[in-house]
Every structure is written in structure tokens, then in C-alpha cells.
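Ticket opened by: R.M.
Priority: normal
Category: complex prediction / small molecule

The reporter submitted a protein together with tryptophan and asked that the result be attached to this ticket for the collaborator who will pick it up next week. Submitted input follows.
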Amino acid sequence: MNKTIKTATFATTIGMILATAGSAVGLGNIWRFPTMTGENGGAAFIFIYMIFNVVIGLVGMMAEFIVGRSGGANSVTAYAKAGRELADGKVRKYGELWGIFGALGGLGTALILSFYSVIAGWCVYYLYKALKGEVLGSPEEIEATFGALVSTDYSWICCLLAILFTASTYFIVARGIEKGIEKASKLMVPLLFILLIILSVASCMLPGAGKGLEFLLMPDISKVTWKTVYEAMSHSFFSLSLGIACLCTYASYMKKDINLAKAAVQIACIDIGVAIIAGFMIFPAAFSVGVSPDSGPSLIFLTLPNVFTNAFPSTIGYCIAVLFYFLLVLAALTSTISMLEVGTVVIEQKLRLSRSVAAAIVTLFCCVMGSLCSLSFAYPEIGLAGTTFFDNCDYITAKFMLPIGGFFTAILVGWLMPKEKVINELASHGTVNVKPLHVNIFFFLLRFVCPICVAVIFIGQLI
Ligand code: TRP
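Result attached by the on-call engineer:
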């Protein structure tokens, strides 16, 4: 009953890359990235976001991989182990307290799943509408469809869809991450990529798309505030699934000979690529039909149906709409699996419960929180501090938990773990040749650049 899923998972390197890329690529790229870009002034935001991905994101991913793979267990155990070990085989006093970050990871990923499932539910709704041929229409009709969705009349449907989505995630996670998911990812990620390219070309050809391209390509430095920098950093964490023990959990299923640096680069490239193409798909269309780029969470639901309607003959538009929402749902699912996985393995291994019971506990929590998130659009009184509960969950996780988790992971791996052990992981236990210069750059970024940048930007937005 109590067996872990270690041997069943990530049998192949490509399976590992795709599953981890499946976690990274999701609504964060196609929904959250355009939303953030739209609200933060376009190209300037993208530029800063890219810098964070390269300077902090890659190194942060490698640090989490190191904690996870050397720990070889759930995130609480892995962080505790990393915090305890000293170079000479002794143990650090109170080192196991680092396990708190593993536990926060389990909680944080569950909170992310709570609001993420609401958007995923909207995608399911749009898939249904697309199948019925009802997402196509005039800009006014398209706006009315979305308006109805978040109104009081439909709020219970949204709530049910969010629960349904979380439940689907449960069924996959409860069975272990099977070969099916790896195989499905192999087909889905490239297909999503191709479809995004087709849609972005179509979007760029709409009349008036030029303004959108300008918005994406011409940085307006005057728009850059501390908030822009902070949002770019926190989104970089969100999109890479970084700072909340998700990568650490996946890394515990990685074989010892996998080159962690190479894996991090490949996953980050896929992730950035999808986000940028999504930008080219959304903004030219938004400017073309007069949807404001800072429309917030509704942005992709307001612009894309216009692309489907206006850029293609009706049957082709119909097929593309169906395929697109289908892939969006699947992309969301490969991400939600990774969110549910973190808390599930912690509960499974720490409380010695079966995998299905452990997953059920986390799912139940996410369903309750997800319902509150989804109802908070129609009933704003559910939220705290003058915003919706949906925004509260997004805020607490993306703006606080991820950067804080990333900061402490950098401290742990950069300063506290025995250096030889970290180098041994980087060298994949002797199977990879790492140059001393690269090791030095890695340590420099991890010890100084990452913690200082994250701390300064984090504190800067508080004051
Ligand atoms: N990165 C995913 C996306 O872009 C979302 C995601 C999956 C995530 N697992 C995570 C975000 C863990 C933060 C932490 O859609």
C-alpha cells in the first residue's frame, strides 16, 4: 500500500523533461503571462521577465533539483535532509527545521491549485461552447458570453467545473504518474506549440494588429515601476513552477545520471517559448478588436474567440477553437498534476497513508478553497482586503510564498549544504563533466545574486 511512485516514474529522460515541462507550461504561460504583460505595460515587462528567467530562474531550478534529487523523498524530508547534513558526516543542530519549507510547498501548491482550477474550469466551459459552435461571434456576443460566465447565474456552474477539474487531477495523481501522462505530454506539448504558432500568425494578420506588435516589441521604460519588476520576478517563479517544492518533488523521481543544468535549460526554453508565442497570439488580436490589454483574467477569453471568428473561414475557425481549448485544458492538467503531487507525497510518506487517501485529503482541501475562489467573482464579499478570494490566493502564493521559498532554497543550497555534495549533484554523480568555471558561476549566482535580488525586490515592494 505504502509504496512510493519512484520506480514507476520518469523511466526515460525525455519523459522526465516532458513531465517537468508539462508542469511549467500551463495557464501560467497562456493565461497569466498575457494578463501580467497587459497590466504591466508590455515589452518592458517581458524584457525584465526574461532577465529573471535567465539569472534567477535557471539557477533556482537547479537548486531545487539538487535538494529533491539528493533527498530522494517528499519535499519535507528532502528539505530537512538538505538542512541537516554537514560535510564531515555530522548533522546540523535543528537542521531538520528546513523541512518547514517542504511543508509550505505542500500548502502553497494546494492554494495555487485552488485558484488555478477556476481558470481551468473556464477553459472546460469554453471547450464545451466551442464544441457547440458558440464561441464564435461578434465582439459584443463574445463579451456577453464571458460576462455571463462570471455572473451570479453561472457562478455555481463555474464552481462545479473547478471541482470537476480538481477531481480529474485527483484520478491521475492517485494512480501515480503513469506512462500515459508521459506519452500524452509527448504528443500534446508539440501540438500545442504548433497550434499557438498558427494562431499567433493569424492574430498578427488581423487588421490593426500592428499596435499589438508595438506593445509587445517596443519597451516603454517610463512604464517600469517597482511593481513591474516585482511582478516580472514573481511571474518568472510561477511560470517555472519554482520556489514551492514542486520541482524538488519532481526531481526526487529523476535518475542520478540526469544532467540537471541541461534539464533546467531545456525546460526554461520550452516555457519561455510558449509564453512569448502566447503573447503574439493575444495582443495583436486584442488591439485589433479594441479589447484593452489590461483587461485582467478575462483577457484571453475575450480576444481569442475574435481570432477564431475573424481570421479563419467558419469551419476551420470552429475546428481550431475546439482544438485550442482542448489543448489548453490538457496543458492545465499537466500543471495541476504537479501541484497536487507535492502535498500528496508529503502526506503519503509522512502519515504513512495510501497514495489515494493522501491525494483525496489534498483534493478535498483544494475543492473547498477552489469553490471559494470561483464564487468570489460573483460574491466579492468572500474576499479579504477589498479584493476577491481568487486574488487573495494568487497574491499570497505568487507574490509571497514563491519568492520566499526561492530565497531560502538559494541560501540552503548555496551556503548550507556541503559544497562537495552540491557539486556531486551538478556532476550527476560523476556521469557529467562540469567545468570549474561553470561551478563558480553557479555558486556566485546562487549565493549572492539570487538572494540579494529576491530580497531587495521583495522588500522594495513592501515599502
Ligand atoms: N508553471 C505552471 C504554469 O505556468 C503552474 C504551476 C505548476 C505552478 N506547478 C506549480 C506554479 C508550482 C507555481 C508552483 O501554468
